[in-house]
Design a protein that fits this description.
By secondary structure, this protein is mainly alpha-helical. About 65% of the residues lie in helices and about 5% in strands.
């Protein structure tokens, strides 16, 4: 089979059915947006309703459904749900990773990493590269749990910069 030929599914069978059904499913972001619109419309209809649940100790807890189409409640979603969920995930590690990756992306795009790697690579003796990376690994693990996510690609860039 050449690279220009594409395997066509058979005319029948379970696999063909699954493939046809799979091609009709929209992208996950579209499904998410549909659910978002559905939830906002549903809260507009039933917003303000109150119901009660029982806690573990037997006392009643009252819950009120918020109408998410009101500006105050949209603000609540962005202030509480998004920030606390995203930045607080995993004990706060995700927030650190997002900020560090943003900084690394800016530094990489601006050429800062390239210049630093060239400067370090030309001044650092090759026999000291492994001990320097071990030291950086220890320091990064003390500073943050996400240090290895930055150090491993940086080590690869250093070794590539030295031609190894």
């Amino acid at each position: 089979m050449s690279t220009s030929e594409v395997a066509q599914p058979s005319s029948g069978g379970v696999i063909a059915f699954i493939e046809k059904a799979g091609k009709k499913i929209p992208d996950p972001i579209i499904i998410f947006m549909w659910f978002l619109v559905f939830v906002f419309a549903l809260t507009a209809l039933i917003g303000g309703l109150t119901f009660e649940t029982q806690s573990a100790d037997g006392s009643a807890i009252s819950h009120t459904i918020k109408n998410m189409t009101e500006a105050e409640h949209v603000r609540w979603v962005f202030d509480n749900a998004l920030l606390n969920n995203w930045l607080g995930f995993g004990g706060g590690v995700l927030g650190v990773i997002l900020i560090v990756m943003l900084g690394v992306g800016v530094a990489e795009s601006s050429g800062l990493f390239n210049a630093l790697i060239k400067k370090i690579g030309t001044r650092l003796n090759e026999k000291f590269l492994a001990p320097a990376l071990i030291f950086l690994g220890i320091m990064s693990s003390i500073a943050t749990d996400a240090g290895y996510l930055i150090l491993i690609p940086l080590a690869g860039l250093l070794y590539a910069g030295l031609g190894k």
